[in-house]
Amino acid sequence: MGRSRSRSSSRSKHSKSSKHSKKRSRSRDRERSKKRSKSREAKRNRRRESRSRSRSTTAPARRERPATPPERIDIFGRTLSKRNALDEKQRKEEEERRAEMERQRKIRQQEIEEKLIEEETARRVEELVAKRVEEELEKRKDEIEREAKLAEEQLRIVEEQRKIHEERMKLEQDRQKQQKEEQKIILGKGKSRPKLSFSLKATE
């Protein structure tokens, strides 16, 4: 019996303490929500005040515009504002013209440089080729001289053969000429006839 009473009393105490803690937490939440709402309201009021101040400061500035001064006229009867605009236009045109001239000058300069580079490259290639040819000629100098002596010998042999051929042709022509003359003589003898002579005897 004693144990049951102690248990019931402890349960009642625990329930009471939990109720008190819940009440405290609720009151704290209410205070926090009140503080939040107050801070939000204060921020809204500050924003409204800043907007009203900015409007009050900008309104007179818009209303109070400085009056435009009267246009001045130069000796040619043109207003200075128009003259300034014309001068500005001429200045821009002059700058554009100078920029175009500079661009054309750079293009010409680039073309000249490219041409010089091409000429220098071609000259170096020619020098390299000439050097290689000279080296090859030096290497084959003996062979070329030997081939040249052989060519001279071949020319001499060809010349001798030509002379021999000419002699043979001349002999052949002489032989044919002699044969023709002999044939003419033979034919001439065959055609010739003996002459008949008539003599009259004297009467005694």
UniProtKB/TrEMBL annotation:
Q: Which Pfam families match?
A: ARGLU
- Its domain of life reads Eukaryota
* UniProt region (Disordered), positions on chain: 1-102, 168-204
List the GO terms this entry assigns under cellular component, sorted alphabetically: mitochondrion; nucleoplasm
Q: What are the GO MF terms of this UniProt record?
A: cadherin binding
Q: Which InterPro entries match?
A: ARGLU1
Segments of skewed composition (Basic and acidic residues): 61-75, 84-102, 168-184
Q: What's the protein called, per UniProt?
A: Arginine and glutamate-rich protein 1
